[in-house]
Amino acid sequence: MPNVTVIVPVYNAEQYILFLMRDLENQTYKNVEFILVNDGSKDNSLEIMENYIAKNGNDRFKIISQPNSGVSSARNKGLEYSNGKYIIFVDCDDRLSSLFVEKYVNRIESNSSDIEVFSAIKVNDRKKVIEDGRIDYSPIASMNSMDVKSYIKYFSNLQAWGYLFCYIFKRELWKNIKFNPDIKYQEDVLAFFEVLTKYPHIKIGVNKDAYYYYVSRKDSALHTMTSENAWQFVEVDDSILKLVSGQPSLKECYDFLLALKMSSLMIVIVTSCLENNDYYYQKAREQFINLNKHSKYISLKIKLRRKLQETVIRLNLKLIIKKLYARL
């Protein structure tokens, strides 16, 4: 029985799936299964994966095919077939250090934690894999585990994120928890908070080290987002607030998570300004102004930034919002 399951949703990945499969093949940690969920790919992804496995004879790879149903459904399918004690989620268009699985597993076992989170390296070219930035957890990293309340506060302060490839989980945490196939954006964040609110007393370890290479693509979902798409961020935040309010031990996190919703509302405001979509602009503007006075911030810098944004939004200075888009 494998100790670790790595779940990889695959959809139309013929241009880059071989890079990832080679990285998985080269992992130094061997007691692992790689579940590749072919989500109804219309290109040659399935054939490429099958040929690679047949050529290399590696029985750690398992391919599961399903009709195209989206990344959430694919992850759910991977969870259904997983056998490992630990779960790691990987995106099919990214790259991995050969130490990726080994370091994740060693840390969660040595720390006796329930979840470990690592930094990740941003790259623009999957062939050269040259660092272009980081998903950086070093400001909150520690040798000691933290509780869920502390992690949620860091999350609300934009010092922690829902990128699932940064995490390794005990598999038992995902029992009876599913990704919502109806959500296109932030589905990972919502599922993650379902875990946190169902198990509010677990231990979370945070690491500064990075063994995952996140490849930024201009055609990714976030780069083609409309203001209607962005509103789903707000809807997910509302679902998270509901989850937290229903867990007595986490109620003190509620006002901090309002600050997280403020960030999502700002995304809608910026996107709607760029699109000249007055409907979503006014919808987000009203909530932004009303919520800012109730939100709690652990960072004075973010609190002051939100106050400045509120002033600009109150005055309806849309041209300034457009010009400051990159900074906001």
Indicate the percent of residues in helices: 40-55%
Strand content: 15-25%
Secondary structure tally: strands: 9
> Assembly state here?
single chain
Q: Please give the alpha-carbon distance between the first and last residues.
A: 48 Å
The whole-angstrom Rg is: 20 Å
Largest sheet composition: 9 strands, mixed
Low-confidence stretches: none
Q: Specify the overall morphology.
A: globular
Judged by helices, strands and strand pairing, the structural class is: alpha/beta
Number of helices in the DSSP assignment: 11
For the residues shown, what is the average pLDDT? 94
User: What is the N-to-C order of secondary-structure elements (H for helix, E for strand)?
Assistant: EHEHEHEEHEEHEHEHHHHH
SSE layout and pairings?
Elements: E1 4-10, H1 17-25, E2 32-39, H2 45-56, E3 61-66, H3 71-81, E4 86-89, E5 95-96, H4 100-110, E6 115-123, E7 131-135, H5 148-156, E8 167-170, H6 187-198, E9 204-215, H7 227-245, H8 254-275, H9 278-292, H10 300-314, H11 318-323
Parallel strand pairs: 1-2, 1-4, 2-3, 6-9
Antiparallel strand pairs: 4-8, 5-9, 6-7, 6-8
Helix pairs in contact: 5-8, 6-7, 7-8, 8-9, 9-10
Task: Give a summary of the structure in a few sentences.
The protein has 328 residues and is α/β, with parallel strands linked by helices.
Feature tags:
nine-stranded mixed beta sheet; alpha/beta
Protein architecture, described:
The chain has 328 residues and is α/β, with parallel strands linked by helices. The protein contains eleven helices and nine strands. Strands 1, 2, 3, 4, 5, 6, 7, 8 and 9 form a nine-stranded mixed beta sheet that branches. α6 packs parallel to α7, α8 packs antiparallel against α9 and α9 crosses α10. The radius of gyration is 20 Å and the shape is globular.
